[in-house]
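On clarity, I found the account of how folds are encoded harder to follow than it need be. An entry of this sort, consisting of the sequence and the corresponding backbone structure tokens, reads as follows:
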Amino acid sequence: MKLIKINTDHYIVVDDSEIKEGDWTYHHVKGIYEARVDGAYTNQKKITYSTQPLELLTLSENGLSGMGFSKVKPLNIFNVKELIGEVDVEKKASEYAINDFDDYAFCGYISGYNQALEDNKGKKYTKEDVIRIVEKSRETGLTIEYLLLSLQPKTEWEVEWETIDNRQPCHCQCHNNPDIVHFVACCNNEWIGKVTQKLKLK
């Protein structure tokens, strides 16, 4: 199973499960598209999760439609960025601004961060990176161009789902007592809480 970066705010999770008509697929050259027939799709992966909706859905009886999630499940963009170590600039700006009323500091932090990215977008490699690559090229005989590819930002990660059991025993004494009405809505089969899944790097 892989997590793939499509663009800054769009990530998908793909796997090798069978592709059927109507499924959403990813091809490393063709990109994202909907499968038109059942069968084998060469070099394609089935999209199971996405940070952005892919499907056009009918939202109401009067025929209104919009983008939504049906076959492809939603994936939280903030959780994904935290997983791969990308900066959550809004979170950092909130910490920097100290209080909720400091809008100038919050907006200034974000503007400064974005300006720094813009100013440095042409500067892909540090001096240390270049020295290390030249030395490695001399040692291995590999071309500098080939070795520079290893410094490109990652766009694919091997991932898996981690099951997190947040359940705790319920001690409300009403499960086996027919004289007590049980009112705890979140309590299920004598447990409070639920089992969730979280994406993690392999």
